[in-house]
Design brief:
Length: 184
Amino acid sequence: MKIGSRIALFYTIITVGAIAAVVMVFYFFTSRYINHLYDSYLIEKAYLTAQKHWEKDEVDEYSYREIQQKYDELLPQAQEILLNTDSASAAVNDTLNKYLDSNQQARLFKDFPVPFVYGNLRGAALHYPDNEGDFIVLVMASNNYGRDIQKHILLLALFLLLMGMTYAAMQISPTHVCLAIVSE
C-alpha cells in the first residue's frame, strides 16, 4: 500500500471514529436524559398516589381536588402497588424483593424516592410515613414514547454516521492525497 493510500485510510478512520464517538456520546446522554425525565414523572406520580390515598382527611377540599386532578392527568396508565409496612411484613418484603434490590430498599427507607426497572417497565418506589401508618408506594409504567424517541434518535445517529463515513471517503480519496504529496 502506497504512503498516500495509508494517509487517506488513516485520516478516514480517524474522521469516522471521531464522528462515531460524537454520535455515541450524544445517543447515550439523550437516552439517559429521557429515562431520567420519565423517572421524575414516576416519582411525582408516586407522591400524588400517596397524597390521594392518605391525605384526603388532612387537606381542604380544594387542595384535594387539585391532587386528584394532577393524579388523573399524570401517567394514567401507571400500575400502582400500595403496601402497609405496619402489617404483613412477609408480604411487604416479598413484594419489595421482587422489584427492588437491597441497596434500593435501603435508600427507600431513608426516605428517598427510588427509581427502578422491572422488565420493560420503569418504576418509582416511595416510603410514605403518615399519621395512619407507614406506607410504600410503587408506581410502574412503560415508557413507550421515550423508547420511540430513543429508537428515532438511534436511527438518526446511524444515518448521520453513515453520511459522515460517505463524506469522509469521498473527500479523502487516495488520488487527492497522492496529488497533494507530489505537488509538495
